[in-house]
Amino acid sequence: MPEHDPETLRPSGMTRRQFIKSVIAAGVVTCSGALFSGPAGAAPAGPPGAVERLITLDVNGQQRRVDVLPHETLAQTLRYKLGLTSVKIGCDRAECGSCTVLVDDVPRYSCSTLTHSVRGAKILTVEGLTRPDGGLHPLQQGVLDAQGFQCGYCAPGFLMATLGFLKTNPDPTRAELAHGVSGNLCRCQDYDKILTALQNGAASMRKA
Amino acid sequence: MPQHDAPFTPRLTGHDYVTPDLRAKLTGTARFSEDFRIEGMLACKLLTSPMPHAKVARLDTSAALAVPGVRAILTAEDLPAPADTVTDTGSVIRANKWAEPALTMEPLYAGEPVLAVAAATEAAAAEAIAKIDIAFSPLPFVIDPLDSLRPGGPAARGDGNVWLQPPAGPDGAPAMAQVGRLSWTEADFAAAGPHRLPLGKPSREWAYGDLEAGFAKAALVLDETFVTPNVSHQTLETRSTLAYWQNGKVFIHTGTQSTMQTVPAISRWLGIPPERIVFISEFTGGGFGSKGTAGISLVIPALLAKKANAPVMMRVGRELEQAIGRARPSCIGRLRAGFAADGRLLALDMYVLQDNGPYEENNDAAMSGRIVSLLYQPQAMRWRGLAVLTNTPTRMYQTGPGGVQGVMLMDRVLAKAARELKLDQVAIRRVNAPAGKAPYDAAGAGGKRPHATSAFVKEALDQGAAAFGWQARQALPRDLGDGRRRGLGVGLGSFVAGTIGFDGLFVITPEGRLRIHCGIGNLGTESFSDVQRVLADAMDVPWEACEIVWGDTGKHLPWSCVSGGSQTIHAMSRAALAASLDAKKKLKEIAAQTLGGAPEDYAVAGGRVSRASDGRGLDFGEAARRAMALGGAYDGHEISAGLHALTKASAQALAGQGLLAVAKDTFPRDGQSFSYVATFAEVEVDTATGMYRVVDFHAAADSGVVVHPRAFGGQVVGRSMLGLGHVTGQRWVFDRHYGMPLGSRFYQTKPPTILELPQKTGWSSVGIPDPETPIGARGIGEPPTGAAAAALLNALSDALGDDRFRRAPILPDMILASLEPDARPRDHGLSANV
Ligand code: FES
Ligand code: FES
Hints:
The complex is a heterodimer of chains A (about 210) and B (about 850).
Chain A: H1 6-9, H2 16-25, E1 53-59, E2 62-68, H3 74-81, E3 100-103, E4 106-109, E5 122-124, H4 138-145, H5 155-168, H6 174-180, H7 191-207
Chain B: H1 22-27, E1 42-48, E2 54-60, H2 62-65, E3 70-74, E4 85-86, E5 92-93, E6 113-119, H3 122-131, E7 133-138, H4 145-149, E8 162-164, E9 178-180, H5 186-192, E10 204-208, H6 211-217, E11 220-227, E12 231-232, E13 241-246, E14 249-253, H7 262-270, E15 277-280, H8 296-308, E16 312-314, H9 318-324, E17 327-328, E18 331-339, E19 345-357, H10 364-375, E20 380-389, H11 403-421, H12 425-432, H13 457-468, H14 470-474, E21 479-481, E22 484-496, E23 503-508, E24 514-518, H15 527-539, E25 546-550, H16 568-595, E26 602-605, E27 608-611, E28 617-619, H17 620-630, H18 645-654, E29 659-664, E30 674-686, E31 692-702, H19 709-728, E32 734-735, E33 740-741, E34 760-765, H20 783-800, H21 812-818
Parallel strand pairs in B: 1-16, 14-15, 19-20, 24-25, 31-34
Antiparallel strand pairs in B: 1-6, 2-7, 3-6, 4-5, 8-9, 8-20, 10-20, 11-18, 12-17, 13-14, 13-16, 18-19, 21-22, 22-30, 23-24, 23-29, 26-27, 27-28, 30-31, 32-33
The complex binds FE2/S2 (inorganic) cluster (FES) (2 copies).
């Protein structure tokens, strides 16, 4: 992805305010973007004078243009600006994995990844798994058939961590898969059923 | 099946299926409270107390209000005054002046909310918080309950340090508990020595049987002190809440354990009638007791939204969650237990000191006595308890509240007794196990001890022992070489598992489908859906003909239990069955009126109401259309008496949409419903590093008929893992000098990860129907937690010897220290907060 300088991107003569307005009018950014700009419970956002820059992200196979602060995390961008609410923020500090997404096929904690660092990368969230016709990805289908998870708050993160792990090891043992998703916390602690369901999902993927 | 005639035939009940909420969870379309957006939504931030106990000495919000984008600041002055409220059944809930407020000018724990700001952006709200001119004057504080009980010790509140139970009034009615001042004497402390709980004055006590005679007869008397941990609920979804007001109604989105019971709770907190409340909670990211109904995290944004006259979203981050997200209270227990040579528990003198936190008295200490009296059936018992106020976060029920602590205190005493008396661990539990209508607690007003509906604990022990291979494993060497040791343990767990008297409500639509209205919270235990399997069976329709409406009180839901204390599968399957009987009665009457004959001539089966004599009948769609034509009770234009006011309102709103079935559960029940679990664990301890892990695990449940096996197994194993976490790592740490919490994140008070799942994990169920409920099912969520914690504690003692530890969690450094040649049991002055 080429890097855009915000100044060169802006049509000349337009103030920043007008520019943002025109972007919103064009439906590029969702309205809630500015509402939450930092971690919940944190001090005022960002270094002084930090300004958003319009960048393009490759998310779930789509080119999404979005204004991003220098210190903005990928979780904030995906959740609050692009409306991808499957990305859950359980801890906001790399402890729980509920925000896991794939960045170029590698599972990453999006709460601890700066959005600017993944320009040009392919980002995948759970929303991107479902087929356009609403059909489930074989991993999702396998988990569904086995009634995996309880409250499901951790589920999107587990699914993405599993998918990333299966890229490197498509036919893991139960113990290998447990290691593969051990960066994800489930507070319902339904680990036994989760593992069974994820293994079922992995099997569906091998058949698909 | 239950002994009496069952009004349903289990076809779906007892079988696995995919619940209707799961797809949304796996596709990211499930909307949890923080996923909602509404036009004009403001962000909220809290100013919380930087001290464990303080008074706000100065507060000036003018600079904060001048920050661009700031719309309102809510302080304690804006809260409605606590007032008495009257419930639907006419009982009065008295205002409690010691109850937790949503905001306070005298914070009683570090992190307690003092005020809240609403602003156009979170950044503006945070800037406003920084600009608030506020000064706190520190007040005396206490973190550990024993410090407060020492002569001259500090008190958590200005007006007292403990909850006291005044004597009953002249009419015998129990008086309201009060906060008061209590100190134990120097002599109490001296008599106990440093490693035993002093037996100072309690606030509550009960007893039955002849305690001293029991001790006199005993072949073995043990006197054991143990400290259970403070454990935060740490739901993965924090309690973020969205609230807004429209046309005089308040709309609230937050995670909850009961959609319907949250409504009267909101009504109490906000001082507005239930008809002005719309509550939306389709998905809840874990509760474990902490999201019972409405609490301060819901009240703050609701009142702030009113003041700001705009929608308010309060996002709760992990550290705020740790402060306001509730926790299980630590209990310090001292148990003197007398055993006969065959292991029978002849006498038990149990004292439980509860670290209560600063607000309402928790029931955990009392429940610990109840569960111990039930689960180990001591022939004589005295229970004494005292709840001490501390300047630490507010406590609340957590999975098996009090039952977990009771079992962690008592089951290890049983394990030690078995070793001293040279008895098998299963045998000593069998000889003390409750059976049938087992009694518990002391005698009530009528002179009779209350009793359980049923108990098949011996059967669970036998089933678990067989599945785990308990006997065969006894011969295995404890020394595994390379400094590794093996330990085997069994533990029991029990908790209440069912309530009665709630309402069922559904509509048979003109299309002949069942639209089931459900007021149960959805936390992922799947009981909101599982109980409807019973309804489908009762109505003899396929699951595909049923649709569940849940999670939004605007959709007209019936009065339901809170999904806590494992009530739901019991309470709401009964309510569903009651509604099915109402539907069948109406169907038969409609058929008789339409086709002639008497209602008794007709039967309901296969989606029809028809008569055997000539096969004539109506399908459900026809009957529903007839119901709409007939009106009256048939389509809900008349509602029978005896229903909860909120059910009535919902039924009235649904009138005319089809055949309306609505009824209250009035099925009889003799006794209180409890469930039980017997858990077996093998642990491997590395004596070089102090690390240990459970390698094999089996939990055998006695909780009646299993309605949905996969969900049941998820609960048994999931709640067991929670119990293992109580032993392996969950705890609080405080800076004692400043009274500040040091562990506010997952890595500091660490819940088990998937790597701690025992290599082999099994569960089973005895499956004997409970005789006191027509479905035969009791709840399962609670008892596995204590059983797993006890099994692991006992396995560690088996590996390393008794008297190594007097507190949990047991961390690797404690294991290593316990192996030193001159090791004494580590208890850190009987403090839970190390
Ligand atoms: S939210 Fe990112 S790891 Fe917890
Ligand atoms: S299923 Fe609830 S957190 Fe994992």
